[in-house]
Amino acid sequence: MLRQPSHACLVDIEAWLKASRLRLNPTKTHVMWLCSPQQLAKVNVLEVPVASTHINVSEMARDLGVVVNSQLLLSAQVAAMCCSGYYQLWQLRHLSDPRQLRL
Is residue 58 part of a domain? Predict the structure, then answer.
């Protein structure tokens, strides 16, 4: 179970959601522990109860288009940007073939 301060914070989040007439979307909500690998090995909480639902702890999340992981490394973001760049270049492949150009 979570320690008392964490539980109190989650209760406050739930109260704020209700007061603002908002609902938590469990499919889009991520809980992530931000710490070193040594500290992460000590954490044994796999899901967190928030607003009458349980959210699984994830190692990676996307927020405003930026992919972050629990160690705040950008390797996942770089990989995502490379995939996106290669896709965009692949979409432009027909421009390199002069036979495909019609005036």
Answer: yes
Q: Residue 83 burial by CB count (10 A; 0-12/13-18/19+): exposed, middle or buried?
A: exposed
- 67 with 61: CB under 8 angstroms? yes
Categorize the per-residue pLDDT at 19 as very low, low, confident or very high, splitting at 50, 70 and 90.
Answer: very high
> Got the DSSP string for 15-45?
HHHHHTT----TTT--B---S-HHHHHH---
- What is the C-alpha to C-alpha distance for residues 101 and 24, in angstroms, rounded to an integer? 50
- Domain of residue 27 covers 4-97
Cα angle 36-42-46, degrees, rounded to a multiple of 5:
100
In the three-class reduction of DSSP (H, G, I as helix; E, B as strand; rest coil), residue 48 is classed as strand
